[in-house]
Structures are given as structure tokens and as C-alpha cells.
Write a structure and sequence with these properties.
188 residues, 2 domains, Peroxidase, domain 1, 4 strands, elongated, 8 helices, alpha+beta, four-stranded mixed β-sheet
């Protein structure tokens, strides 16, 4: 079994646990916190993953850090991962869980590339328009790239919408180059 399949199985189990406890969003927030800690503090990740640290020490630290912060069933799940020696899959499990949670809550992630920052109000309007168009709550992930010159580039799943000035110029150039050159008209 691949690590991706194992992570998905754990995420599905955790999702069902969250559903039974009516705490899916609380689980999502807790996993966001744990995932953020894994990304921001490499020493925490190394601590969890290294076989040199005994499992009981890892579990002691997890209890100390997350008791009262995470829902108890979620903390128990993290301790179980240590028992099963699956803590290396924690990042993948978190990503798989978030995919399931987004689907359940009708959310979709959209990559948005702009030439310049629009500001909070305009970004809110863009997110609201995209939400209406897609029929789901949109979570925009914005990148600023001045090279696109203007307009917007959107990626929703595997679908790309290129409404950038650079993209329009490129398509116009391709259309012009694909047209046959007219023969010169001779004046008689």
C-alpha cells in the first residue's frame, strides 16, 4: 500500500470520527494548527519523526502541548499515529482531511494570479463573484506576478481561466501568425 493510500485511509477514519462527534470544523481548525506547527517549526517535525526519541516522550509532549487546545478525540488520534508509527504521514493525512472537509462544506480552492495587489475589499468582491459563479464558497490563494501585465489568471482544480493581458497578447499573436499572408496587389 502506498503512503498516499494509507494517509487517505487515516484521513477518512478521522473524518468519520469528526462527523460522529459533530466536530468536523473543530477537527479542521485543530489540524490546521498542527499542520502550521509542522511547517513553521522544522524541529517539531524532526522530533515527531525521529526514531531516536522514544514514543512515550513524543506522546508526553503531544499531550502537554495539545491538551485543552485540540478536541480530545483528535488528540487521541495523534497519539494513535505515534503508537502505529505513522507520524511521518501526518502532513499527508492533514491534506487529505482538508480535501474531505472542503467537499463536505462546499468549499473550493482557487489559485488567483494578479499583476498587483487589489486590496482587501476588491479581493472580497472577487471571491464573492467567484463563489456565485462556481456555486461553492471560494477560498482564494493569491499570488502577485507583475509579468502578467494586467487582468487575472484563475485555476480551479484542473481548469484554467486566463484573462491576463499577457495571455490575450499571446493569443492575438498566434492568430496573426496563423493567417496566410495575402499576395501583393499589383497596380495596373
Amino acid at each position: 500500500m502506498t503512503s498516499e493510500t494509507i494517509a487517505r485511509n487515516y484521513a477518512e477514519t478521522l473524518f468519520e470520527l469528526g462527523r460522529r462527534h459533530e466536530a468536523l470544523e473543530a477537527f479542521g481548525r485543530g489540524l490546521d494548527m498542527v499542520g502550521g506547527l509542522l511547517e513553521e517549526d522544522p524541529s517539531f517535525k524532526v522530533f515527531l519523526e525521529t526514531p531516536r526519541v522514544p514514543d512515550h516522550d513524543k506522546k508526553k509532549v503531544l499531550r502537554k502541548v495539545f491538551t485543552g487546545v485540540l478536541p480530545p478525540p483528535l488528540l487521541t488520534f495523534l497519539l494513535l499515529l505515534v503508537d502505529k508509527r505513522r507520524q511521518r504521514l501526518l502532513g499527508e493525512i492533514i491534506r487529505e482531511f482538508q480535501v474531505l472537509l472542503d467537499k463536505q462544506l462546499g468549499r473550493t480552492h482557487v489559485s488567483v494570479i494578479l499583476a498587483q495587489d487589489l486590496g482587501a475589499e476588491a479581493m472580497g468582491e472577487l471571491a464573492a463573484k467567484l463563489s456565485r459563479l462556481l456555486g461553492k464558497q471560494v477560498i482564494p490563494h493569491v499570488q502577485i506576478r507583475p509579468a502578467i501585465l494586467g487582468g487575472v489568471y484563475l485555476k480551479v482544480g484542473d481548469t484554467v481561466y486566463d484573462a491576463t493581458l499577457r495571455g490575450r497578447l499571446k493569443r492575438m499573436r498566434q492568430r496573426l501568425l496563423s493567417k496566410p499572408i495575402l499576395p501583393a496587389v499589383s497596380g495596373a
